[in-house]
Amino acid sequence: MSSATDPKQVEDVQGDGRWISQHKRFMLEAKEREPEVVFIGDSLIQHMQFSEIWVKMFQPLHSLNFGIGGDQTQHVLWRVENGEMDDVQPKVVVLLVGTNNYDHTDKEVTEGILAIVKAIQERQSQVQIIVLGIPPRGEKPNPLREKISKINEGLSSKLSSTPNITFLNADFSAFINSEGLIDSKDMYDYLHFTNEGYRKFCEPLVEEINLKTKYKYKYCQYNRNKDNMMLKTLDLMINFSFQLI
């Protein structure tokens, strides 16, 4: 068994217990709230809750955000198998993880993500699962981009005909220009999204959740109006002090 599919807690190397504290808080939120959508994954999910698209699109659905910075597939798998999906009945679960599995092969990461999907299905047999393709990373072309492309190809192949599961591949062309570069306007550190980056990344997700929850999004018109492409700055000062996802 690859370590990417072997459920494991994050080692508390800093000694402050933050990871397990977040896990326990997520389980409490699952018991106390009735979300239509649950998002789970690494900090690409975690940071989404501070974006404008979350406030406008996902917050009205009472969405829960179970993203933890630095998580790899085996860590999310452990969280699912240890209570985060046991006391909640969402219509949709959105999963994004894998960019931190830099020590694993593309096939191992793909299998790790599939193991999470299976674990969610075992606990939520009727839920619709949306698996998001991993977005590109790094300002310039690099081996991780190639690896991520292979992971996404593997997920697309494995999930294309699976009932109750939708795979939304990441559109690399939305973030990589003709010279192969990623703009900091989309990813401020060439990994984590800005507001504009989240808008681009989440457009197909918004439409898919709309279909699955029957929620009437008005924001889609905003996305297509060229005169309103610039997002208003949120009055949020967020200090993302950690470097890992």
Descriptive account of the structure:
The protein is an alpha/beta fold. It has one domain (31-228): Rossmann fold (3-Layer(aba) Sandwich), CATH 3.40.50. The chain contains 8 helices and 5 strands; from the N terminus they run αβααβαβαβαβαα. It has helices at residues 18-32, 43-46, 52-58, 73-84, 106-123, 143-159, 195-213, 219-224, and strands spanning 37-41, 64-67, 92-96, 128-132, 165-168. It has a 5-stranded parallel β-sheet, with helices on both faces. Strand 4, helix 6 and strand 5 form a beta-alpha-beta unit.
* N-to-C order of helices and strands: HEHHEHEHEHEHH
Helix content: 40-55%
List the total number of helices. Answer: 8
Please state the structural category: alpha/beta
| CATH fold title | Rossmann fold
Proper CATH architecture: 3-Layer(aba) Sandwich
Quaternary organization = single chain
Count of all domains = 1
Q: Which overall shape is indicated by the principal axes computed on the Cα atoms?
A: globular
**What is the level 1 CATH name?**
Alpha Beta
